[in-house]
Amino acid sequence: MTSSLWINPALGVAGDMVLGSLFDLGADQAWVRSQLAAVELPGWSLEVSPTRRRGLVATAVDVQLLSHDHHRPWSQIDAMLSSSTLDPRVAEGARKSFLLLGTAEAKVHGIALDEVHFHEVGAVDAIIDILGSWAALVSLGVTQVHSGPIGLGTATQTMAHGIIPVPAPATLELLVGIPTVPVDWDCETATPTGVALLAAMVDTWGNIPAGIIERTGRGAGSKDPDSHANVVTAVLLNPAPQPEPAGEWFTSTMIETNLDDITPEILGHVLTELIALGADDAWVTPITMKKSRSAHQLSVLCTPELAPQIVEFITSETATLGFRQWDLTKRELPRTMHTIDLHGYPVRIKVGPHGAKPEYEDLVAASQSLGKSVRQLSIEALFAWTSAQD
Fold first, then answer.
1. How far from 209 is each of 7, 197, 199, 212, CA to CA, in Å?
2. What confidence score (pLDDT) does residue 243 get?
3. CA angle, 190 as apex, 187 and 193 as ends, to 5°?
4. Domains of the chain from N-terminus onward
5. Per-residue pLDDT tens digits for 325-348
6. Which of 198, 303, 363, 388 has its CA 20 to 30 A from that of 371?
7. Percent of the chain having pLDDT more than 90?
8. What pLDDT does 76 receive?
9. R_g (Cα) of the chain, nearest Å
10. What is the β-pairing status of strands 180-182 and 150-152?
11. 3-state class percentages of the chain: helix first, strand second, coil last, to nearest 5
12. Distances (CA, A) of 332 to 21, 80, 310, 327
């Protein structure tokens, strides 16, 4: 079953908060650590522990370092990720996050991407946060990520470049096109690492999507203010069962007769003419009658108003001596008809709630002109229709 993830960063987001929320949600720590070990980084250790933020239980993530590395160029990080033995999904996600970070830094400093040297962002703990978050996401089997708006506080902060306004310029650049909400806290609530993770992960922004909540998790921020619970909430959802299309109900008439003295040619003629008369459907079933006589059961589905005409036609064409007839309720699911161009020939596609089917008559007409089999054209028509929907 596919799963989707909804993240609520309404009070802010940082890399360790995202990773903590995914661990709290049940991500496989052993597998995440094995992915982190696949990248050659200076000595580090990862502590994952339960904590509380304003009374709420959450998971805190703390990266302990033997030394701090504050100057790591983007190109070095990208090369390190691309040449590693990481799971391809983890490597791709992490590279995407760092590319967003590098592009934002390059723009706010007016330099080329290859000239970007990360400072706080490029530290080993940030690399661990990004790699770990992508590995945790993969371990959870998430197929789609959704997020609410990101909470932003207003302050100033001392960085490697001196005192800068918060949100930091690179953070604001990463937030272009992303919904935000204010947080009444004189502090940085959204870090570049946290925003880059969400910007790379999230498929849609907004309220929690429809679905059945499987479990929830919370990741704790490093600070514990008196004003609010400094957490990121993550929710794992399974899609809600979709109701069967309602369709329409009709009263129909079923007419049946057994025929043991009719040729296949006449049977084919009868079926063709019954449809031409307006029957909804008509079919033949091989049966064995009394005295082991081989026979055919002719079945016709039509409207009650058409039944007398259908009976008269069958009688005249088959000389049958009797019928079975009863009314039933028929349900028709919604369907639409579309036309595609197949090698210059129009082919109608009947589309229902659970599939699509090319119209046989159109395939035959195209087959006669193109010299291709009906079966091959049917495959091509469905492929053309499906490709047009992507």
1. 11, 20, 18, 9
2. 67
3. 130
4. 3-238 (no CATH), 248-332 (3.30.70.1380), 336-389 (no CATH)
5. 999 998 888 888 999 999 999 999
6. 388
7. 65
8. 85
9. 33
10. parallel
11. 35, 35, 30
12. 47, 58, 21, 16
Distance CA 262, CA 41 (A): 84
For residue 332, the one-letter residue type is: E
Tell me the C-alpha distance between 95 and 107, whole Å.
Answer: 18
Give strand pairing partners of 285. 297
Tell me what pLDDT residue 121 has: 47
Amino acid at 186: D
Contacts of 94 (CB under 8 A, 6+ apart): 81, 86, 130, 131, 134
Shortest CA distance to 284 belongs to which of 275, 292, 307, 378?
275
Q: Is 46 left (phi over 0), alpha (psi -120 to 50) or beta?
A: beta
Spell out the alpha helix ranges (H) of the chain: 15-25, 29-37, 74-82, 88-109, 124-139, 169-174, 192-201, 264-277, 307-318, 360-370, 374-389
- Answer whether 349's CB lies under 8 Å from 341's CB: no
∠ CA 311-313-316 to the nearest 5 degrees?
110
pLDDT tens track for 69-84: 556 788 888 888 888 8
Q: How many CA atoms lie within 13 A of 27 on its CB side?
A: 30
